Give the backbone structure.
Amino acid sequence: MIEKTNPTKRLFSNLADQIRNEIISDRFDSETISEKLIMEKYGVARNTAMKSLIVLEGMGWVVRCPGKGTTIVKNKKALKNTINIMMKINTIGDDLFHQRSWTASKIINAMGNEARNLHVNLRILFLHQDDTLEEKLDSILSMGANHAFVALYENHLDELIPSLVKDKIPYIVRTYPHGEFNQIGVESCQITQKAINYLINTYDTHKILFLYPNEGLDKHIQGRFNGYREALRKNNIDLDKDMILPIHPHHPKQLGYEHGQLQAAIQNASVIFAANGACGLVAYETLKAMNLKMPDDMPLLVYDDFDEFDKIDPTISAIRSNYEEIGKLLIQKSNEMINNGFQNDLRILVNGQLMLRDTA
């Protein structure tokens, strides 16, 4: 008879919980376990027995031994926690080799270092886009309770989050701050406001060109735009729509069409704030092509600090996001949930830093 300890869990998950509790309390009267034994002992179908055994193996409570069958693990303390970075097969190229990959590489590097410090396993788990939600969730459930799941991009977990919450599976997402789910994000509004205040006060100007990637104003750029508007408001500067310009930094053909518009906007501005690194590089190259010196003719400050920004001439002033801290926190909070219990109230903001160099 299966004890339904959690009505929200499926039958095989409840069965795995029951077997695990019997192992912990030393009430499971066998040193080995099999699908047949589970079927006979608990009166379940082969598919349920098989799935419960997979869950127990993922949790580390049973181990398959060639020639001996599947044996029960008594010393659970010897097991390591595992944290899985979620990736999607169909977007792996964009995730790891796109312009934004420099942020992912910094975060993954920091995660690896922290995982080593805490003696936990770290691996990448690929999700197949063609799998149904049920299939994806079954894959996650089969890994067991000593696992947590991390997404560096929200769309890798967005469809799974309600099920992860329902089944209390540890997860956390690195994303821009929004929504009611476990997340670590960069505080962008206040640091942008600080940067705009610096530009206004240093260069005594009201004409600050806000340059941003075309698709991002209602997404990851929103906090930066809010900081820009708030700084203008506090300095009694009216919002000028002509000083807000979207461009397509990753689309050379489209960017070519926008070249004249960008040059005209620069000529009407006194300083430039680029809302991400890619836009900052476009502004930098455009200013050079126009033979404008930075900061004498046109100051430039960029949100995002690319590695090359402090190696080129002139070096680019930027807002640096602490991706190393994000990586550490992703591991620490995931590991805490595995050890201490599921949470769904993690809303962590990591502060940025203003890096003043040659261009502003």
User: Anything to note?
Assistant: The longest strand covers residues 82-88. Residues 101-118 form the longest helix (18 residues).
